[in-house]
Specification:
By secondary structure, the protein is an all-alpha fold. It folds into four domains: about 200 residues, no CATH class; about 120 residues, no CATH class; about 140 residues, Tetracycline Repressor, domain 2 (Orthogonal Bundle); about 170 residues, no CATH class. The protein is built from 26 helices and two strands. A two-stranded antiparallel sheet has the order 1-2. The longest helix has about 35 residues. The protein is rod-shaped, with a radius of gyration of 52 Å.
């Protein structure tokens, strides 16, 4: 760090009175004690060079003294030509004291030319011996004229304190010119102590100027506002130093070495940005439930400070510098960008350490970096433009990738937890016996909107950060949903809330998920197709099972003598109509499938009763049963047609059986049998035997009809098509072997 603003004045440059605003009193530099001023580490190379120069002079002086006094002289000083190698790594005060001790030895070796006491006066109060030395140097022409601070109103230290930096630099430049001239003509050998003190004080005052530049930069963005005059003074003194020291001297002279104050100013800007960014993170951080700072609030404070500071830089700081060609806007922008990047890395490590809130913390961090800080409107004003060269990434690519991986790991657990919450919410609705509502004529429950909202929010949030994260989030949602659907199906079917409206509502929900998600996110939710289709099929089967449980006892009345005189079919069809009206509130594809299955079930169970009658009809009763069966077939067909069933191929089955049972012309029975076998390719030989057993036509007629049916069945089996195979009816009708059937076979 550069030295603070409290400076040690040069003996020839300081005034008697110190300014009132000094925070700490200054001490005068004497040959007896070290200066109290702390200085930047950059002063060490210059002081090291100064020490080596004086060490060489010390060796020369000792050689001259030894020649005068002769060998073995008691007051011959110890040679300082080979100082301890560890001396250069000690504190600056020890170094200065060592230099003064060596210089004192040189003075002793060369004889008492001058004697500077520890209380040597500054400015106009120079000691008489010092004045004599200056007069001797000027009269002999061995050194240039001394810098006459007596004619100046203020010392260098006062000028620096009052931030008249250019005037202070000009005085130091004059002193530097004199010191260079003294070194060139070797007039410094007449008073090495004074020369060394002036050179050291010049270096310390240069460091003081650098420290004052630091202080001005640090105060620029402070609460007191921008001091445009101070900023202009910084720019002027930096430019003046660059003109005075355009390049490093070839002889390595530390007096004329460039101070690189432009780079020092840039580093000061960087340090100031770091301090302000770090300070913003610690201010007004609202603690969350776990006692850690709230990340969103920290980032909001950070963004507010950076935005406010950069607006001030562009509107107040940049104009003060731009007249001197200082790129203040670009330097400040890059400095704050670097500081924000460093702070974000720290916050990223903290967010990754929070297991309980990792997902939220990581998303807030990624979202702020991508959408808040990365937004063109972040600085809040159209006149604030970015530099021509793009800024480096706010987070390193490997860090960004790691944060995305961590976020997806947390997100996978969070999405699964969200689906658990959705299931619990549905269970609470079941417990409260909430019936599905009708929306646009269909049963509707909030399950579908909840799932769509869950997926859309996570995908949208991830897409706002990166396309890669969006694709990953889509895969996570698809996988979690494919696991949720069968779990939901099992939970619902095991509950007491199963009803036709709920089953219809959840069939609608599955269809909405299947169509909407596959359409909106193509190529992602294909794995969801199978579990959704399986769940829909399970709900359809449950609808049929409930219907079968209600109407199965009603089929036992059919094809009995009671049935001949009563309308036993109507109660059964009433229940079918009730279900059909409820299926109108289910989406058409799946409602039609259920209605088709109900239609097929009613026809099949009717045929079961017809082929396995509980009572046998003979004569007139058989004819009446045939007529009754025809009426029932017509009623069944019209009912299902009114409900919207498209399975018209089922209507012919009962009529064919009715015609065979009621036909009196044996030749026509063969024609009805042909119609039955050609219409329903799943008719088997046992079904034909059961029909012939009901008619009791005689052995020869039965044998002829059986042989003809066998040929028809063989031909039908050879010419089966896919459509015919899908029409299953008689294959599901089991006909037990009875005595009548056996007699028919014989």
């Amino acid at each position: 760090m550069p030295s603070p603003r409290t400076l040690t004045p040069a003996p020839e440059l300081c005034s008697q009175k110190e300014p009132a605003e000094r925070q700490t009193p200054k001490r005068r530099v004497s040959s007896g004690d070290a200066p109290s001023t702390q200085h930047d580490d950059t002063a060490w190379p210059r002081l090291g060079t100064l020490f080596r120069s004086f060490s060489r002079a010390n060796q020369q002086g000792r050689g001259s003294a030894d020649r005068q006094k002769g060998p073995g002289s008691a007051d011959s000083p110890q040679s300082p030509g080979s100082p301890d190698s560890g001396l250069f790594h000690r504190r600056s005060s020890k170094l200065l004291r060592s230099i003064r001790r060596n210089l004192a030895e040189v003075v002793t070796a060369n004889g008492p030319q001058t004697s500077t006491k520890s209380g040597a006066a500054c400015g106009p109060n120079v000691s008489s011996k010092g004045k004599d030395l200056v007069r001797r140097q000027m009269s002999t022409g061995s050194a240039p004229a001394e810098l006459k601070t007596e004619a100046e109103d203020k010392s260098v230290a006062d000028l620096i304190t009052e931030r008249q930096l250019l005037a202070a630099f000009e005085q130091l430049r004059d002193l530097e010119t004199q010191l260079v001239a003294m070194k060139t003509n070797r007039s410094y050998e007449q008073d090495l102590t004074s020369y060394a003190r002036r050179a050291m004080d010049m270096c310390l005052h240069y460091d003081g100027l650098a420290a004052e530049i630091d202080a001005i930069v640090r105060e620029t963005l402070g609460p007191d506002g921008v001091d445009a005059d101070a900023l202009a003074e910084v720019a002027r003194v930096v430019c003046a130093e660059e003109n005075a020291h355009p390049e490093s001297p070839t002889d390595g002279d530390f007096l004329r070495t460039p101070r690189h104050w432009r780079q020092h100013w840039e580093r000061a800007v960087e340090r100031n940005a770091q301090e302000r960014v770090q300070g913003a993170s610690a201010q007004e951080a609202a603690p969350d439930g776990e006692g850690s700072p709230d990340l969103a609030h920290q980032l909001a404070e950070l963004g507010s400070l950076v935005r406010r500071d950069l607006q001030k830089v562009r509107r107040e700081v940049q104009p003060a510098y731009e007249a001197f060609g200082f790129p203040a806007w670009e330097v400040y922008l890059r400095a704050f960008h670097s500081a924000v990047a460093q702070r974000l890395q720290e916050l990223a490590h903290q967010a990754r350490a929070h297991q309980s809130r990792g997902c939220e913390q990581l998303y807030v961090l990624l979202d702020w970096a991508a959408n808040v800080y990365g937004s063109p409107d972040f600085l809040g004003a159209p006149d604030l433009s970015l530099p021509a060269e793009p800024l480096p990434p706010l987070l390193a690519p490997d860090m960004w990738a790691q944060l995305e991986d961590d976020y997806t790991n947390f997100l996978e657990t969070k999405i699964a937890s969200c689906f658990d919450n959705i299931l619990q919410l549905e269970q609470s609705r079941w417990a409260e016996a909430e019936a599905p509502e009708l929306l646009q004529g269909h049963y509707h429950v909030p399950l579908s909107p909840d799932i769509h909202m869950l997926v859309a929010e996570h995908v949208k949030a991830a897409g706002a950060i990166s396309a890669k994260l969006e694709a990953t989030t889509l895969r996570l949602c698809a996988r979690a949903l494919s696991l949720f659907v069968p779990r939901f199906e099992k939970t619902f079917l095991e509950s007491e809330a199963v009803s036709v409206p709920h089953l219809g509502a959840y069939i609608n929900t599955c269809e909405e998920l299947r169509s909407n998600l596959l359409t909106r996110y193509p190529g992602t939710f294909e794995e969801l197709e199978k579990p959704l289709a399986s769940t829909i099929s399970s709900f359809q089967k449950r609808l049929l099972q409930d219907l079968q449980k209600n109407v199965q006892p009603l089929f036992k009345v059919l094809c009995t003598k009671t049935w001949l005189t009563q309308d036993a079919l109507q109660p059964l069809m009433d229940k079918v109509v009730t279900l059909g009206r409820q299926l109108e509130h289910v989406v058409p594809p799946w409602a039609q499938e259920v209605l088709h299955e109900v239609h097929r079930y009613v026809v099949r169970e009717y045929l079961v009763q017809a082929l396995r009658p509980r009572e046998r009809f003979r004569g007139t009763e058989r004819v009446m049963s045939s007529q009754k069966m025809s009426l029932d077939a017509q009623a069944i067909g019209e009912t299902f047609q009114g409900l919207g069933s498209e399975a018209s191929w089922l209507d012919q089955a009962i009529l064919c059986v009715s015609d065979i049972l009621g036909e009196t012309d044996k030749a026509s029975i063969q024609r009805h049998l042909e119609t039955l076998i050609r219409s329903y390719h799943d008719v088997r030989r046992e079904h034909v035997l059961a029909l012939l057993a009901l008619r009791r036509l005689g052995r020869r007629c039965n044998q002829r009809l059986l042989q003809h049916a066998r040929d028809l069945l063989r031909a039908a089996k050879a010419g089966d098509s896919g459509a015919a195979e899908s029409r299953v009816l008689f294959a599901e009708i089991e006909v037990p072997t009875s005595v009548d059937v056996l007699i028919t076979c014989i």
